[in-house]
Amino acid sequence: MTPFTSVTGIAAPMPLPNIDTDVIMPKKFLKRIDREGLAQGVFHDLRFDENGNERSGFVLNRAGYRNARFIVAGRNFGCGSSREHAVWGLLQQGIRAVIAPSFAGIFFGNCEKNGLLAVELPEDKLTVLLETISDGDRAELTIDLDAQKIRPAQGAALEFDIDAGLRRNLLLGLDHIEETLQYADDIRAYEVKNGLVSEPSRGSADA
User: Fold this and answer.
1) What angle do helix axes 105-114 and 85-92 make, rounded to 10 degrees?
2) What's the rounded Cα separation, in Å, for the pair 142 and 57?
3) DSSP strand pairing (70-73 vs 97-100)
4) Rounded distance, CA 157 to CA 148, Å?
5) Distance between CA atoms of 120 and 35, rounded to whole angstroms?
6) What is the set of domains in the chain, with CATH numbers?
7) Distance of CA 163 to CAs 34, 95, 120, 130, 166, Å?
8) Which of 66, 54, 50, 48 is nearest to 11 (CA)?
9) Is the pLDDT confidence value at 207 over 50?
């Protein structure tokens, strides 16, 4: 995974609650057997009309937000089905973080596994942030994960809470497997000690 330390970019406001995974990634884009090409599907039915033309009113099609790196959303973001494609597509679209008062549990877990930062921000702080970025000329902000702060281009920084283990993995760019492999020597020693595997004899090639 790409480490997340301090990222600066445009934040797009999507304040409606309950934006579900079928809106984020419509089911017609789930037919691929790999993860490639999913950026096209992100918010597809909101971004494009039935003829494939951009809908000018959708925030990601508007000047100032087109190259957004963050989404500031309403509560319960990512509800609905458990499709991991929604997170893969957001990352391919260039989105590095979603900020919302709450997230659907499975979606939050998929974010954790794939390096998409999901920031839970209380409603009062979110309202302040949405007011700031509602003007496309003031929509740039920096998310400093190390300091656990969101720094708008204008206004005071907003602090946020995050699980210490999740924060560490995001800072280091570790998924769950890579996190486990950090303890490979300890795991091997435990297996040998408890007779789960045999210790290689001296001079033998370790395959």
Assistant:
1) 50
2) 26
3) parallel
4) 10
5) 27
6) 6-173 (3.20.19.10)
7) 30, 21, 11, 24, 5
8) 66
9) no
Burial 157-170 (b: 16+ CB within 10 A, else e): ebebeeeeeebebb
- Please tell me the pTM assigned to this model: 0.86
Amino acid in position 196: L
CA 185 vs. chain centroid, Å, equals: 31
How far is residue 174's CA from residue 22's CA, in Å, rounded to a whole number?
28
- Listed in sequence order, the residues at least 6 apart from 52 whose beta carbon sits closer than 8 Å to its beta carbon are none
Q: Whole-angstrom Cα distance, residue 82 to residue 157?
A: 33
Average pLDDT estimate for 1-26: 97
- What whole-number distance in Å separates Cα of residue 142 and Cα of residue 70? 10
Which two three-digit tokens encode residue 167? 């924060």
Q: How far is residue 105's CA from residue 157's CA, in Å, rounded to a whole number?
A: 27
Per-residue model confidence as pLDDT tens digits over 72-116: 999 999 999 999 999 999 999 999 999 999 999 999 999 999 999
**Number of residues that make up the chain:** 207
What is the rounded distance in angstroms from the CA atom of residue 154 to the CA atom of residue 132? Answer: 7
> How confident is the model over 112-154, as pLDDT tens digits?
999 999 999 999 999 999 999 999 889 999 999 999 999 998 8
